[in-house]
Amino acid sequence: MYTVPSQAGKLIVVTGANSGTGKEAARKLAGAGARVILAVRTVAKGDQAKAEILAEHPKAELEVRRLDLADLASVASFADGLIADGRPVDVLVNNAGVMAPPTRMVTADGFELQFGTNYLGPFALTIRLLPLVLAAPAPRIVMMSSKAAEFGQIRLDDLQWGRLRYRPMGCYSQSKLADLMLSQHLAAVADERGWNLLSTAAHPGYTKTNLLNAGPSLGRNRPSAFGFESMGRWFGQSVVIGTEPLLYAATSPDAVNGGYYGPKGFVGLFGASTRVRPPRRALDASAAARLWAEAERLTEVALPAAAA
User: Fold this and answer.
1) What is the pTM of this model?
2) Which pLDDT value is given to residue 138?
């Protein structure tokens, strides 16, 4: 079991902190002394998560703020609020995401939902908050990827799956590969520019969270009767164990820039955390740079002069 070292004095932003790995990460980070901002789409759910964490850690410093990664205006508003506060962000944990809705859906900005929520939203948030992150003494940015990234393909000519026949898991795999490529490219930029920044990534293996059911149930009147959620109930590991790679990437003194962390058990689906090798496609620096440039174009967010 990974023990989070003291995070006293740190400000940590966790997206999707109202449930699953996000809530567990917020719980452990707050318990280790960090001030944690729970960045959530639904404030009432964030407030409930806050109450549950406070019941266990009465002295925890927690704040709930609204963030909808499927709406770039919401991303900008959230980032502007933190910038107005002026306090450096020690760790940004890009955890939130959506998985495999049964039909093609779009974000508020017209992007395919998974690519927009899982990649473009976190990309815009990361770039907007980068000056605050770089102002911290030992900053980190963590991306939550997935084992599904191993099956992903980046199709720069159709990232939105507008021409291809929509495949829920194919689209999800692309978005999670894109997350990993974002982390790798940011690590390379940090090295190139001499930033004191660790850009890391993690995946939870096969973990029981509502992500397994929430996405496949989108657009339906009732939850999916069979699929990821049903299999997860029988085979998935607990969220406590599944969150360990994310916490390791965010807090371990042994984590390295560009490091990718996941379970070390059976085919990387279960067990304690270890450093794992990213899939070959995630290490294609040229493709990652092209994807980054396309994300800048689509979101109209680029590296600010202060960070550059």
Assistant:
1) 0.91
2) 98
